[in-house]
C-alpha cells in the first residue's frame, strides 16, 4: 500500500531537479579540474568514461533492486551519493582517482535515473487506481530535471566567470542540494518494494522485449535526440555557424529552458489531446525545426531552431514512460518502467559518442540534422500506434 505525504508531487519534483543539477554543475568545470590535475586530453577522456562505466551497469541492475527495496529509499540513497560525489571530484589529486569518483557518480546517476522514474510512474498509476486524481504528472516531473540542468549550468558558468575555486563551488552546491534532498525525502510517497517481481519478475531485457516495439522506439529516439543536442549543439553552433563559444553555450541553455517549458505544460496537453496527438505534433515540430536549421547558414536561425527542437521534444520520453506502465501487467509495472528508463538512458549515453564518429565523415551539422530527422520520423510514426494511445 502506498503511503502518501502532504506534497508527494513536490517531493518527486525535487528529486528530478537535483538529478539535473548535479551533472550540469560538474560539466562546465571540467576544464578547471583538468588544469588542476595537469592531465592530457587522452587521460581526461579515459577518466570521463568513468561516468558511463558506472552508469550503464547501474541502469541495468536497478530494475531488480526495486523488487526488494522501496523506490523512495533507492531515490534518497542514490541522490545523496550522487550529490556527495561532487566535492570528492574537487579534491582528487590524480586522474586515476578522478576516474574512480566519476564511476561512483555515474553509478549513483544511473540508479537515480531508474528509481525516480519508476517511483513517479508507480505513484501516478496507484493514484489513478485508488480513485485519486487522474491527471498526468510525469511530464512536469521531467520538467524539474530540465530546470535543474538550467540552474546547475548557470551556477557553474557564473562561478567560472568570477573565478570561484572548484572546491568552494562544489561544496556550496552540495550543501544546497543535500538540503533539497532532505526536503524531498520528507515528502516522497512511500512506495513498497514490488515483491511480486522477485524471482518470477522479468529481467530488464525481458521487460523491454515484452513491451510494444513502438514504446521502446519512442523512448530510444527521444533520449537519443536529447543527448545528441545536449552534447553537440553548442559545438555545432559555435564552429559550423561561426557564432562563438558564448553563443553555443547560450543555445544549450535555451534548449534546456525550452525542454522545461514544454515538459511543464506537457501533462495538460496529454490530458487534453491524448498521447498520440502530442507525440505526432511534437515529432512534427522537431523535424521541421531540424530541417530548417540544417538547410541554411544563419546562426540566429540555427539557435532558434535548436530551442524549438526542445519545445517539441520535451514531453516525448515522459510520455513513453507512462505508456510503458499502461501496457505492462500489474505485476510488471516496476520492471517495465525501470526497463524503459534503462534503455532510454543507454541511448542518451551511448548515442552522442557514435554521433561524433559519424560526424568525422559527414560533418557535425549534417549528422545532427540527419539523425534528428530520422528520430523525428520514428517518433511520429510510432505515435500513431495504439500502444501509445
Automatic annotation (TrEMBL):
One of its GO terms (cellular component) is plasma membrane. It is found in: Cell membrane. It is a multi-pass membrane protein. SUPFAM superfamilies: MFS general substrate transporter. The chain crosses the membrane at residues 43-62, 69-89, 95-120, 141-162, 168-186, 207-225, 245-266, 278-295, 301-321, 333-350, 362-383. Residues 210-389 form the Major facilitator superfamily (MFS) profile domain. PROSITE patterns: MFS. Keywords: Membrane, Transmembrane, Transmembrane helix. This is Putative major facilitator superfamily transporter. It comes from Gordonia soli NBRC 108243.
